[in-house]
């Protein structure tokens, strides 16, 4: 199963018609490990929509933590 790795919402920075990039660092990730992330969108009205479940084995930063670029994940989704 999945577990919540980001307990607080990332504040929105635009509208549906604007391209906006978001980044977030998973501080629990370990190098050389495959992770599955489920992305959830929450509207201003509180409506939740699961956008993607993505398998990642991304690059690891100098501090040894995985870096996830949410805009790349959303860009590759078909709705």
Helices and strands in order:
Layout: E1 23-26, E2 35-42, E3 48-56, E4 66-69, H1 70-75
Antiparallel strand pairs: 1-4, 2-3
Strand content: 25-35%
Structural class of the secondary elements?
mainly beta
Oligomer: single chain
Shape: globular
Query: Count of helical segments?
Result: 1
N-end to C-end Cα span = 24 Å
Average pLDDT works out at: 71
Number of E strands: 4
Helical fraction: under 10%
- Uncertain residue ranges: none
Using only CA atoms, what is the Rg? 13 Å
The helix/strand order is: EEEEH
Could you give a short account of the major beta sheet? 2 strands, antiparallel
Numbering strands along the chain, what is their spatial order in the largest sheet? 1-4
TL;DR?
By secondary structure, the chain is mostly beta strands.
Give your account of this protein's structure.
There is one protein chain. β2 (35-42) and β3 (48-56) form a beta hairpin. 8% of the residues lie in helices and 32% in strands. 3% of the residues are buried. The chain has one helix at residues 70-75, and strands spanning 23-26, 35-42, 48-56, 66-69. It has a domain at 23-75. It is built from one helix and four strands. The two termini are 24 Å apart. With 79 residues, it is mostly beta strands. The longest helix has 6 residues, at 70-75. It has a two-stranded antiparallel sheet with strand order 1-4. A two-stranded antiparallel ribbon has the order 2-3. The model has no long low-confidence stretch (mean pLDDT 71).
């Amino acid at each position: 199963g999945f577990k919540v790795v980001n307990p607080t919402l990332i504040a929105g920075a635009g509208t549906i018609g604007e391209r906006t990039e978001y980044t977030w660092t998973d501080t629990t990730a370990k190098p050389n490990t495959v992770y599955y992330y489920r992305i959830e969108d929450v509207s201003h009205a509180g409506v939740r929509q699961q956008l993607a479940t993505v398998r990642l084995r991304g690059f690891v930063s100098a501090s040894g933590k995985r870096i996830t670029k949410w805009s790349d994940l959303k860009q590759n989704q078909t709705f």
